[in-house]
Write a structure and sequence with these properties.
Membrane topology: Multi-pass membrane protein
Subcellular location: Membrane
CATH topology of the largest domain: Growth Hormone, Chain: A
Helix content: over 70%
Shape: globular
Radius of gyration: 21 Å
CATH class of the largest domain: Mainly Alpha
Pfam families: MFS_1 (PF07690)
Organism: Pseudoduganella guangdongensis
GO molecular function: transmembrane transporter activity
Distance between the termini: 38 Å
Order of helices and strands: HHHHHHHHHHHHHHHHHHHH
CATH architecture of the largest domain: Up-down Bundle
Structural class: mainly alpha
């Protein structure tokens, strides 16, 4: 029976986003609430990005066995059980070590679910349907961060302040809620999701998968100007990577430590709701601007729009405003311009880095470099902030915009601005939520 994509596309991409944001972003706030310093909290949560960064390396193996739906169902089930297991071990002796092991395993499970879910979408829908539902796909993925970074962070603070739970108890309830939600999604997708067709170029065995991967690497490094394009992919967002984890920490740290002293409830509202809506609005505006003028004439302008408004955090660190409207405006400005400027980055990867024999794989290499930048900057960001204080650290973030300007100015254009290769819209959204 052919079922409408509206039955499984929205829920599928929402589930993907929930797993990704809970593991790579929300955990940082939880670690901080449980007593970690900024350095450890940023480092541990950033390490969980690794699986999503290297997923192109094991994607061919996932394609070889059973059906794509089989992997989606299995990975969602395991991810739901994983969040339940985290809730169970919280408070036990050595709980933090056990939680990190679970999170590390779950990050690879989540990355595998991403591969399989994208595979179902690409192979179950024809090109016309993919275009028709791409807006639904992107919107559904972005509902995930609203729920994870907004609603669930708010819930943790509400349980802590209004119901007297300690932070362990509050976050245990959050993880139980996520586990139940993902298990419900598993049952739903088992019922309504299509199997996913086998792609024509799927490897038949491990040897063939290895050959394809080696050939993809070989042809990637044979591209004209590849090192400059790689530098662009790695460094365009370096300042954003330094800000990603520290921005929320700055919001919740006490005023005496240089922060703004916000509660988890307010953080959930400002960052997870207003901030994300600003990203979406900025992405739409950036896409319109790019379509109107073309990529090459505006790429450097987009880089300026992306980086210069980071100064709002420096100003907030200097003046430490208490007015929620002022704080919210600072976050909205930074997030809107981030969404606006990030569109040019992703389109550059699609149009200039990806074209060739292995378009999709080379595009994945580019997004992998983006993920590597986020992981490395996230690992060091907390330690640098603790050593420097917020004002000096945000000066450092402003200085880190300089490499972005340099690599953008010298970014090569060897291809015309042809239609971008097929790539999941949620990659654009994922880049906007860190």
């Amino acid at each position: 029976m052919n079922r409408s994509p509206l039955l499984w596309v929205p829920s599928g991409y929402f589930s993907m986003a929930m797993g990704y944001i809970m593991l790579t972003s929300v955990t940082a706030i939880m670690f901080k609430n449980l007593g970690m310093d900024n350095g450890q909290a940023a480092q541990y949560s950033s390490m969980l990005i690794l699986a999503y960064t290297i997923k192109p390396l094991f994607a061919p193996v996932v394609e070889m066995y059973r059906t794509k739906k089989f992997f989606v169902i299995c990975m969602q089930l395991l991810l739901g059980l994983g969040f339940g297991a985290v809730a169970l071990v919280m408070g036990m002796p050595g709980a933090m070590a056990m939680m990190m092991v679970l999170f590390w395993i779950m990050s690879f499970i989540g990355a595998t679910m991403d591969i399989a879910s994208d595979g179902v979408y690409v192979t179950s829908l024809d090109s016309r349907s993919q275009s028709l539902y791409c807006g639904v796909q992107g919107l559904s993925w972005n509902i995930g961060p609203v729920v994870a970074s907004g609603v669930l962070v708010y819930l943790s603070g509400y349980l802590h302040t209004s119901h007297g739970m300690d932070w362990l108890g509050a976050w245990r309830m959050v993880f139980i809620a996520v586990a139940v939600l993902l298990l419900a999604m598993t049952a739903w997708h088992w019922r309504v999701m299509p199997e996913g067709a086998r792609a024509a170029d799927t490897p038949e065995n491990l040897g063939q998968a290895g050959f394809i991967l080696r050939d993809a690497f070989k042809t990637f490094f044979e591209k004209r100007g590849v090192w400059t394009m790689m530098a662009f992919a790695l460094l365009y967002r370096v300042s954003i990577g330094l800000l990603e984890k520290i921005g929320p920490f700055f919001m919740v740290d006490p005023v005496a430590k240089g922060g703004l002293g916000m509660s988890n409830e307010l953080l959930g509202i400002v960052y997870g709701t207003y901030g994300l809506l600003a990203v979406l609005a900025g992405s739409l505006a950036g896409g319109w601007y790019l379509a109107r003028h073309g990529l090459k004439p505006v790429l450097f302008k987009l880089c300026c729009v992306l980086n210069i408004p980071i100064a709002t955090f420096l100003l907030m660190a200097i003046y430490q405003p208490t007015n929620l409207w002022v704080i919210g405006a600072g976050v909205v400005i930074e997030k809107f311009t981030f969404g606006f400027g990030s569109v040019g980055f992703m389109i550059y990867l699609m149009q200039q880095l990806a074209p060739g024999k292995y378009t999709t794989t080379h595009y994945a290499f580019g997004t992998g470099l983006m993920g590597l930048c986020g992981m490395l900057t996230g690992i060091v960001s907390g330690h640098l902030q603790e050593a420097m204080g917020y004002v000096n650290y945000f000066w450092l973030v402003m200085a880190a915009t300089i490499p972005s300007f340099i690599v953008t100015w010298y970014a090569p254009f060897h291809h015309g601005e042809q239609a971008a290769p097929a790539a999941p819209v949620k990659e654009l959204c994922e880049s906007s939520t860190g």
